[in-house]
Description:
The protein has eleven helices and nine strands. It is of the alpha/beta class.
Amino acid sequence: MLIGGCVSWPHPNASGVSELRWITLGGVRQAVLIRGDDRANPILLFLHGGPGVSEMPLAYKNAALEKYFTVVQWDQRGAGKSYRPDTPDMRIAQFVDDTLELTRKLEAEFGQRKFFLAGHSWGSLIGALAVARAPQLFRAYIGLSQFVDIPDSERELDQRARAYAKQTANCRALKKLQELGRFPYPNHRVERQVNKVQKKLMGEVPHELGAAHFIALALVSPDYSLGDYARMLRGIVFSGKALEREIYAANLFRSAPELDVPVYFLTGRHDTVLSPVVGKRYFKAMVAPRGKHFIWFEKSNHWPQIEEPEKYRATMRSILRDTGP
């Protein structure tokens, strides 16, 4: 049975759905928020980033999509509402298994086939792997700030920052980068310092979602309590430690060279977290017999769905139209 605990809210449409559920996936109880104006609409399953960074508290920012999709926001094992300090099987393969199990359970309940699967950052790693394993379950795949290969991404961002510092004669930034050294960095503190310099070099992004902005948006969410935020913070640390080694070893050039569904990459032009250059390289190399599309978000860094929400919603509606009934 799908429901392992459920909180429902009245929906103005008799055919609509607005529920927070706890579903057991891979033996672990996990939170899933399901919202849409019509249960018969196509399902959009959204995989959050991080690992451990729930995007459920930001779901309201793109609630307009619920007119066209039944939108599923899922706090993955070890993240947000689903966080528990003893969460087992924190492995990439298990997250892929959880994704496919959730898809099949929702498919059985809603009577739909071929979901839209969207993954952001870390979520785009497990999303691409899920589609590569079971393309028959999905109508299209949408990679937001697509994860490809962290070492390659870090090296490209570092090289680009140094080249830009030289071109602009920014001796101070170049000296700081030289002091900090090149990838692989000795620890996350150095990595954060390098990223800070890179962001300054790349210039201001009009609608960049920084930490303070994220917190401001999340704190007014109708879906998260103060206790949930505490769990999310602990889950970010827990998930990062548990998955760090695997994440740095993951490489989609090797593990997902072909995606047999329509593929859409939505990429911030100014992304300083995951290199858009590496993302574009993977996009070009990927075999996608059902078609592939690369869409730039010119005013975005790493969160195009929040930094340019109007364009994101318009793009998702276009994908819905393009992929047919």
